[in-house]
Amino acid sequence: MNRGSNVVDVGEDVALEVLFDRLQRQPELVAQPKSSRLPLHDITPENFEKLVVRLASAEPGAKLKARRYGKSGATQSGLDVQRLDPDSSRFACYEAKRVIDIRRGTLTRWVEGFLSGKHAANACSFYLCTTYAVSEETNLADEWSQCEKLLLARQIHPHLWDRVALEDLLRNHWPIVLELYGETVANGFCVPAARPLPDPQASMFAAREETHYGQSVNLYNRSIACSIYLPGGVDRNLSAALSFARADISGISMALSARELVGWSQWRHHADASMDRPYAIAHGTRKGAYLLMGSRVRLTLEEAEVADLDWILECAWHKIHSACQAQVTAWRSLGFEPIEHYPQAIGLLSIRPWFWQRMLDFARAHDVGLGDGPWHMFDAAPGCLKVYSDSDDQRFDRGYHAILYAHVEGTIWLGAPGDVVVGWRPADIGAPCSVRGQWDARYTHDWLLEEMIPEVLRWMGHSSAVQRQSKWWQWQWLRTRTRTRTRTRTRTRTRTGVALPSVAEIAWSRARVEVTSSAPEASNEALFEYVHMLQSHATCQRSDVPLSSACMRNVLDCIDCTLPFASLPTESYLRGNLGLQGEEDLSRSIRRKAADMASIVHYPAMDFALRALIEVLRYAPDLPASSRGHILQLLKPIRDRSDEDILCGLFSR
């Protein structure tokens, strides 16, 4: 031990160098070397003073000063030791009291004497050190409890190092017991010291490296490695695993679910450095440490390791977003959810089960082998709908365009009651999607709603076979009509007077991204519907991933440029949604809010801002086309973020 470095101030009566001298071997032999007790009551006064100093200086870099009161070696002598606390710049005070007996009132007298002394004002803690077993006598233990209250009232943490506490401390100090009682006693009394862990390796992985092969991506930096499996082909699976270079956690792999991987990486991409990470929270007791919060794993990381994890997630985001975007772009499937329990298929429509059966009947009646009409484009098969052309024509090329199955709760429909979901997946994974060849998800969805289903309804109305069964299928429709999906439309009637249901009453889209019939800038109604769609997303979005302040400023600019054309009955709704107070002009208040916008915003605030924009558009029926185009351009970043959120939701399962 480097004793000289510990000296801050040497008392006039005792020098710390003397107290750090080697302990003298106790002359009394210990009868039972394996005993759980040490004969501390027989320790010499000099050894007891040295013992207290050794224990007080156990922390690395401890700085001490000491003063003795009374004659060394006397049973009533005392030693005061002070240790500087670097965190608070106050002192931990130790009083060594080697006494033969302690009577009731002695503890109170010692504590009150300390509190009335000059050191109490600068003390953060007080250690009363004695070889007497205070905690084993009830009356003395009760007295010490009262002493603790006196110390705590002065914001001084109390500690009692009596014989019992000293023995517990010495179990982990084999070298001290060795000096006092010898190796045999030290080996029998002390807890066996665990082999020290090797120093964590500062750099086991590459400094910063990225490798990409097929659907596998590997990211490395000095402390963390990440292996990512990306979506590709018909495979929508997304997963990752983290490995660590630090020696005490090397060999541990932490699996990340798709929800964790997408959520963490998207947050890292959009958040700034001032925000608290959702995946790494500050450690409650260790300064500079963080808890990595996985769904099934908790790991303690250092600050530098968390910074390396930030880099991993930022790089992972670009890889993940590109792979997911490539798949939904190739299939045009953005906004279509995978079917539950059968994620290989994408749900396009929900259809009444009886009508799905009629669609299969229509396909059988229009098999390519039964005619050459424009609707003879099916390869009839039980349980599925195969759209097929046997030759090239003006509209379609030869081959399969779509193979569709109906699902109920993720299983192929086998006649069970309830609505069925029409599932789509590529008929040929190796072939690109096109309107002439293999159809993509969006084209198949639109073709079903706009062409095939209306044609099946007309076929049902004009088919004599169906007319004979009209009461049956009409009863099925009425019985299963339990809720309204869209606004009611006028039903057509056949020549026999039987009312046919409308398309909206038997089938409805499962797309989360609406495709309007006209461009948003085409009319005020189309723009109003477009903004309402963005506001609905902001209302339903539960992500903690922030938005940039530019998105909010753009919405405020949209409101400001619409105000001159709006005749608002009152400004209170706008001011309430935007958090504007005071009597300042509304337009000037909006511009001031945009100028003072924080660096990030969250979806609840965006929700209220879009509601305010909807309110202004409602009272601006004569908004010029140039303003509509300008508003649409300002809203593009918000639409892009909305599409990004939907994309993340599709692959976070």
Word description of this protein:
By secondary structure, this protein is an alpha+beta fold. The chain folds into four domains: 4-189, no CATH class; 208-331, no CATH class; 338-509, no CATH class; 520-650, no CATH class. The chain is 39% helix and 18% strand. It has 20 helices and 22 strands. A hairpin with a 2-residue loop joins strand 6 and strand 7 (216-221). The longest helix is centred in the middle third of the chain and has 29 residues, at 303-331. It is elongated and about 115 Å long. Mean pLDDT is 82; it is low at 1-11, 469-473 and 477-497.
Spans of at least 5 consecutive residues whose pLDDT stays below 50 are 1-11, 469-473, 477-497
Mean pLDDT: 82
Helix vs. strand class:
alpha+beta
Q: State the helix count.
A: 20
- Helical content (DSSP H or I, runs of 4+): 25-40%
Alpha carbon gyration radius: 39 Å
Largest sheet: 7 strands, antiparallel
The N- and C-terminal alpha carbons lie at a distance of: 58 Å
Count of structural domains: 4
Choose one word for the global shape.
elongated
Strand content: 15-25%
Number of strands: 22
In short:
The protein is α+β, with helices and mostly antiparallel strands and about 650 residues long. About 40% of the residues lie in helices and about 20% in strands.
Question: What's the helix and strand layout?
Answer:
Elements: H1 16-19, H2 45-56, E1 64-69, E2 78-85, E3 90-97, H3 106-115, E4 123-130, H4 138-153, E5 157-161, H5 163-170, H6 174-181, H7 183-189, E6 208-213, E7 216-221, E8 224-229, E9 239-244, E10 253-256, H8 258-270, E11 280-282, E12 289-293, E13 298-302, H9 303-331, E14 338-339, E15 342-351, H10 353-365, E16 384-389, E17 399-408, E18 411-412, E19 420-424, H11 441-462, H12 464-468, H13 470-480, H14 503-506, E20 507-509, H15 524-540, E21 547-548, H16 549-562, H17 572-578, H18 586-595, E22 600-601, H19 603-618, H20 625-650
Helix pairs in contact: 3-4, 6-7, 8-9, 15-19, 15-20, 16-18, 16-19, 16-20, 17-19
